[in-house]
Amino acid sequence: MSEQSSTGGDAITVMVVDDHPMWREGVARDLDERGLKVVATAPDADAAVRIALAVRPRVVLMDLNLGARSGVHATEAILDKLPDTKVLVLSASGEHADVLQAVKAGATGYLVKSASVQELIDAVRRTAEGYPVFTPGLAGLVLGEYRRLADEPEGPAGAAPVLTERETDVLRLVAKGLTAKQIGERLVVSHRTVESHVQNTLRKLQLHNRAQLVRYAIEQGLTDE
Amino acid sequence: MPSAVDMQRPVEPLWRGMLVYRTLTLASTAAVTVWRLDDFASPAGAVAVLVAMAGWTLLTSIWYVGGRPDRRLVAIADVLVTVAVMATTPLVQSPQQLAADAPVMGSIWTSGAVLACALAYGVRGGLLSAVAVAGALVAFQARMETELGDIQLMILAGLTVGYAATVLRRSGERLREAITHEASMAERERLAREVHDGVLQVLGYVKRRGAEVGGQAGELGRLAGEQEFALRTLLTTGPVMTDAQGRRDLAAALRMLSTARISVSTPAHKVELPARVVDELVGVVGAALANVALHVGPDAPAWVLLEDVGHGVEISVRDEGPGIPAGRLEAAASEGRLGVAKSMRGRVMDLGGTISCDTAPGRGTDWIIRVPRAGVARNERTVVHRR
């Protein structure tokens, strides 16, 4: 199930999407040197979607600033066809609105490019294992998005998603810079439980986003059934 | 006047207006001439002049509207033909008419050529053609004193219309320049964004490579990292503007505080509050962060979180320092020392809010600032509408 790589071994297959050649090659080399398998690179959103469908990587490392079509678009398109693939956003500009959009489109993590190589490798491994990669900044964005949705009049996709009290607490502590371990200690739960709470907050947001998109598509007559 | 003026040809509406004026004056002159046809020494001559005027008016209208041949040449020809029409006066009018100071041949129609020259050549053209037509008026009617008013009016018309044409042309040029300038600025901005993105990438890359290589390269990498952070903050936040209602985005204002050691988390949407409240809150958060640098260390990390809770805002400023032992804040306050805490508390209370401190030895310090929107609204005497 999780074994999608046809190239053998248990190396995590990665695709690097970035419009900047130096960065793209540099990151690819860093990942290769540390035991991850970079199976493809792509310079823009369209190529990213095309190549991803061909090589089916476990993790896509996605830049958001890709020129004409953004990484948000590519994230959506890739996850639509390859639900088992994970997308980790690696962005230089830290554009908060774009990051939120990418996460709503299904990306499960976000890292700024100034992160160290070790942080990047850890983040890719965690993403491959299905864990979300959260920065405090992303937690603040997600927390804010739930508040915004709650204040909105009921949308076409039904009631807005709500966080449980525990999920809100966890997100807030992530936004305040605590690690999963520190949060677990504070709330007296295991750090795995903390991870699953964080994961739930993303999943609900993504489901809501998907429901909205489907509803929109039906309204516009874009679906066959 | 058409509602939308073509900025490539700003004088165009005036040309159309001139042609309408020309046609109307032709009609009135023809009517008066036909009505008084019996007075003329040569009625056939008068009619011939009228037919020539009508033909010329039609021809010039086509030329003026089409813009070819060159309007400037047509305008000169127009003045010459007009003078020629006026020159027929002694030939077709009877001595009685001349003595009675009947209108010169062409009458009011003759002023059209002056307007055309004014439009084609500006003030100077208007003035010169007015003098030429006025000269003809005097020459073929020889009653200077009675024509003085007409001459003054004609010169005035030539001057004002010429001036208007000049001004319109100039402002049209300026508008064109401004639009070209704006387009080139937008293009420059787009290029700048691309360059900035490239610079960010390179700085980020240098930082990573430097950290790996270590030594001197590590120092270079650290410097690159600082610059990368500064540039990214500048690019993603921009100046925090106050809108027309005097409100400002608190989220954007707080994001400006982020550095390599300070992480600022906010919602993606705007959190708008009166500008004064935003300034105060940014000041309080800044004081808390300065306190972290002072008591925990200049490189100690700190985290700021802004939450929009609907009825108000909540801001948390957290560090992982040694924490503040219980009672120390109160002790400092009771000793009369105006510590940072007290000044922060005072500022927040002025906004109708509360500030609390979640701390314990070894657990760091977490300042939590809560400011209600209602309190803000009362202080500001404005009603705050939530979306």
Automatic annotation (TrEMBL), chain A:
Keyword DNA-binding part of the UniProt annotation: yes
InterPro entries reported in the protein's UniProt record: CheY-like_superfamily, NreC/VraR/RcsB-like_REC, Sig_transdc_resp-reg_C-effctor, Sig_transdc_resp-reg_receiver, Tscrpt_reg_LuxR_C, WalR-like
Domain Response regulatory: 13-128
HTH luxR-type domain: residues covered: 156-221
SMART domains: HTH_LUXR, REC
Sites bearing 4-aspartylphosphate, chain numbering: 63
Keyword DNA-binding carried by entry: yes
Cited Pfam families: GerE (PF00196), Response_reg (PF00072)
Keywords (A to Z) from UniProt: DNA-binding, Phosphoprotein
Name this protein carries in UniProt: Response regulator transcription factor
Lineage: Bacteria, Bacillati, Actinomycetota, Actinomycetes, Pseudonocardiales
